[in-house]
Design brief:
With 305 residues, the chain is α+β, with helices and mostly antiparallel strands. It is 51% helix and 11% strand. The protein has a 4-stranded antiparallel sheet with strand order 4-5-7-6. The longest helix is centred in the middle third of the chain and has 49 residues. The chain starts with a helix and ends in a 43-residue tail after the last helix. The relative contact order is 0.07.
């Protein structure tokens, strides 16, 4: 992740940790979701644990800068709990076990829990319309969500607001930049093709004009050639509008000019047959094959001398 993405994730987690539930049942549910042992990396999470009655474990420390905190073992009856308590529990579970990654316009949210808890956590999220999947990684259950819309919905329902708006604004901005880049790339490619085609057409017109064949072409072809010469940058639609022609007629005229410049037009549209000797004699080949001899004495008789 870039520095700005890491700052946004940190701000989002800090905002969730700063949520102070008014209901005692929500506080108990969040405590149950966090505990009983919390490896807190951020100061905001550590302050939340202390606020909920936890304390630092003096006998052990977490890896790196993480500190280990102990919370009261608070059971929660998920099946009987109202939705606000369920959301408080999920908020605590995300702060204690979750992480969010934003990179290259993609979002990835995961919660690392014991393997036997993973299917239960997926089922609980499904009950509150926050679908997820899970897998085993390094003997741990990893509950993952990769849909940006689902992640935004999950974070919004567990209490994120300002940081979530910033995340969604960045998502929209990235999407708009992506769409704009695709449009610009397509327009650039179309422009390059148009410039290359105009160059070929102008070269073909010059070739046909030099050897006199351009003057022999039909009026429409000559008019299109003249319009192309006068406005090399014009599109087919522009030339068609200028000459009061259909676009397809302009396309056919330009294709004809390019074809004539590459191949001599002599004999186009006429069939030539080769005689029995292989030379172009111009004589038609008989229905029964070339070189068939015929008698000069008229119809074949029974006893002709």
């Amino acid at each position: 992740m870039s520095g700005t993405d890491r700052d946004l994730v940190a701000a989002l987690r800090a905002e969730l940790a700063a949520v102070d539930p008014a209901r005692p049942c929500d506080r108990r549910a969040e405590t149950a979701g966090l505990g009983p042992r919390v490896h807190a990396r951020e100061g905001s999470v550590a302050r939340l644990v202390i606020r909920l009655g936890g304390h630092a474990d003096q006998g052990s420390t977490g890896a790196g800068s993480r500190r280990v905190f102990i919370l009261p073992d608070t059971p929660m009856d998920w099946a009987a709990a109202p939705e606000h308590c369920r959301l408080a529990w999920l908020r605590g579970r995300f702060l204690a076990r979750g992480s969010l990654s934003l990179a290259s316009g993609r979002a990835h949210l995961e919660m690392t829990v014991p393997v036997d808890e993973a299917p239960t956590l997926v089922a609980r999220r499904g009950e509150v319309a926050m679908p997820a999947a899970w897998r085993v990684r390094r003997s741990q259950g990893v509950v993952t969500t990769k849909s940006r819309e689902t992640i935004a919905g999950f974070l919004g329902r567990i209490g994120a607001s300002a940081a979530l708006l910033e995340l969604e604004a960045r998502t929209v901005a990235r999407s708009m930049r992506g769409d704009l880049n695709r449009v610009l790339n397509a327009e650039s490619a179309n422009l390059q093709r148009s410039v290359a085609a105009a160059g070929r057409q102008l070269a073909a017109i010059d070739t046909l004009d030099a050897d006199g064949r351009l003057a022999e072409q039909p009026y429409t072809v000559r008019a299109v050639a003249e319009a192309r010469r006068e406005t090399p940058e014009a599109s087919l639609a522009d030339i068609a509008t200028r000459l009061n022609l259909h676009r397809s007629a302009v396309q056919r005229a330009l294709d004809r000019l390019e074809r004539l410049a590459l191949h001599d037009d002599e004999g186009v549209g006429r069939r030539h047959r080769r005689g029995p000797s292989g030379a172009g004699s111009g004589e038609p080949v008989g229905r029964h094959g070339a070189g068939r001899a015929t008698t000069s004495g008229g119809p074949k008789g029974n006893g002709g001398s």
